[in-house]
Amino acid sequence: MPGRVRLLGCPAEEGGAGKVKLINMAQIPWAGVNALDAATLAYSAVGMLRQHIRPSDRINIILPEGGTAHNVIPDKSRILCSVRSENFSEMEALHTRVENCCNGAALATGCTVDLMKAMEPYADIRPNESICVEFQRYMNSCGREFVCDLQHKDINAFSTDMGNVSYEVPSFHGHYFIPTPQGTAMHTEGFRDVSKTPDSHGITMNVAKGMAVTGVKILLDEEFAARARSDVDQDKKLR
User: Fold this and answer.
1) Do 159 and 169 contact (CB within 8 A), yes or no?
2) What is the domain extent for residue 228?
3) I need a surface site. Which of 20, 62, 67, 69 has the fewest CB within 10 A?
């Protein structure tokens, strides 16, 4: 007795008729909804969006999931995307534009999209002028040249939640340099090796002392602490 027995599991048997969907995707692909098409379209839309964003903005996107077999229409895909901007408000606006790319791709392909936040956003760093000036004053008095320039801020190439702290309380996030060979980037073996040298340790200790002295001044000098808090209040009006 010739014939074929096909065993189907029970996906969504009590809600959604999952068996029928599996058959449709395998035998009548025109009846399926391709989640990978939606992800690909969203990826392309984000790529086109890059032409219309600020030079300081960044959008990074990958497709870690887009199906499990080449002859089955994917019913699920996944995109991971991150956005960066010069400040928090611009980042939120860019985030909305990226979401629109995903929503538009889902609409065009007949898919649905669930937008989930992988982590809380990192805010831009709002340096406190009073604290920065005091740190600079102490370091310069020790023969270490530091510059406090709050008018020209370059977008940071790193991420830190120190920015979120600076939105709430007076904060300081200074940069200093250790002697590295030309072309050495952070988070590399070359940088690691240089950071272990006595010279690098000495520079780091001097900076740590400057931060400690500035912190003690906040604790002991009420007038200085009040100025630092006032800086935060004034900065909130500019955000």
Assistant:
1) no
2) 129-237
3) 69
Residue 61's alpha-carbon distances to 105, 109, 117, 211, in angstroms, are 15, 20, 14, 38
Same domain, yes or no: 133 and 231 = yes
**One-letter amino acid identity for 218?**
I
How many CB atoms are located within 10 Å of the residue 108 CB? 13
pLDDT (tens digit per residue) in 173-225: 888 889 998 888 888 999 999 999 999 999 999 999 998 999 899 888 999 99
Q: Which of 47, 33, 13, 31 is nearest to 112 (CA)?
A: 33
Examine the domain organization and report whether 97 and 156 are in the same domain: no
Helix (H, G, I), strand (E, B) or coil at 15: coil
* Angle, vertex CA 99, rays to CA 98 and CA 105, nearest 5: 95
Please list, residue by residue across 48-72, b when 16 or more beta carbons sit within 10 angstroms of its beta carbon and e when fewer do. Answer: ebeeebeeebbbebeeeebbeeeee
Query: Is the pLDDT assigned to residue 38 strictly greater than 70?
Result: yes
